[in-house]
Design a protein that fits this description.
Immunoglobulin-like; five-stranded antiparallel beta sheet; single chain; about 90 residues; three-stranded antiparallel beta sheet; mainly beta
């Protein structure tokens, strides 16, 4: 398995490691102008996942998603850019 597998109607960029913490970050975007249900599966042990902003910092009201079977289910709005940050497990 690769580091990240994406299923559903979104595009993704390769995993980026944060300089300070080493937490993996993935940049996803919905590119068709519609809503997309996406499953993002990671090929590494992750302890949790949190949304972060473009500079890859968790905002004060960051929402955490539940990890199930090594992945997370997401619902993206039209043209939404979403950046999940995975805590190493």
């Amino acid at each position: 398995m690769s580091a990240v597998e994406l299923a559903g109607g979104a595009s993704g960029d390769p995993v980026v490691r944060l300089y300070e913490s080493g937490d993996p970050v993935v940049r996803l975007y919905e590119s068709t102008g519609g809503r997309a249900k996406v499953r993002l599966t990671v090929g590494f042990e992750a302890g949790g996942v949190t949304a972060c902003d473009l500079p890859e910092r968790p905002p004060g009201d960051a929402t955490a998603a539940e990890l199930h079977d090594g992945g997370v289910e997401l619902a993206l709005r039209p043209f939404e850019l979403f950046t999940p940050r995975f805590a190493r497990g």
